[in-house]
Amino acid sequence: MRHLLRVFAALACILACSPAFARQAGRVDYSAATAKVIPLRGNVSLLQVRRGDAIDNIGVLSGPEGYLLVDHPEAAGHAVVQKTLDDFGKRPVRFLINTHWHYDHVGGNEFYAPEAIVVAHENVRKRVLTEQHPAWAEAPIPPLPEKAWPRVTFRDSLAIHFDGEDVEVVHYDNAHTDGDSIVYFERANVAQLGDNFHGKGEISLGVDMEGMVRTLAAVVERINDDTILITGHGELSNRRELAEYVELLRDAIAHVKSELAAGKTDKEIQAEGLPEKWKQWPAADNLDMVPRLNHMIYRTLRDQDLNQ
Asked: Where are the domains of the chain?
């Protein structure tokens, strides 16, 4: 989410979070937010919430059985989300998938559960059951109320067959968090990546940057050139752009490894930026993420726990 990048604190510990996460829960004003449903393919759509330049993306599977949603912005955004769903078609929400535990992705849990089955990786449930103290947060993140806890969890993968669609939810590795899910809508050939990827020109960060490469590379191998990608907080994307980002990350990690071996410090590595091949890749308003990317790679290689 580009406009939120500007409010990242300078502290290195904050760098673990995604652009959409450098803020405290409940401080975002959704009163002027707008939302629309963008049909993608088959009965899969994107419900996109906008607050100025900020974007929250919700995957929507719709049909006679009801809705399956993937992600939901924080609770304050529920009114605009629900109105948009009602305008699209008054159906009950039967499933809600959390791609990870961050509050700008689980804000719908308390509204739709227990009528809807909340599905998430097992580490998401562990996180939302207790107060979290991530290094990037301005204050502790309180646990969700019990009714909002995921009721179906998985370790590696899980399948949901609903509304004529085959949905597979897969955890590959620690990446943006320790509980990321990639969601595949098999028949529609749509995949939702959560905050592991924000699209062309954007830089996504995480608890394990090598794990992020492994996760996104696995997605590249699985999808094809016709696959539509729903990003965490960016515009729709595709396999080519995702493959570019994987290559960028691989090159950036190799560069940081080389500089570490040469005795460079964290600050020196941050100042060097991206390898020359990728200098023009970030969007203009995303350039401040480059030192943070190098820092996060440095921390990954140093095995520093970011409590993400």
From this structure: 2-247
pLDDT in tens, 234-243: 999 999 999 9
CATH no., domain 2-247: 3.60.15.10
Q: How many residues does the chain have?
A: 308
Average pLDDT of the chain, as a whole number:
91
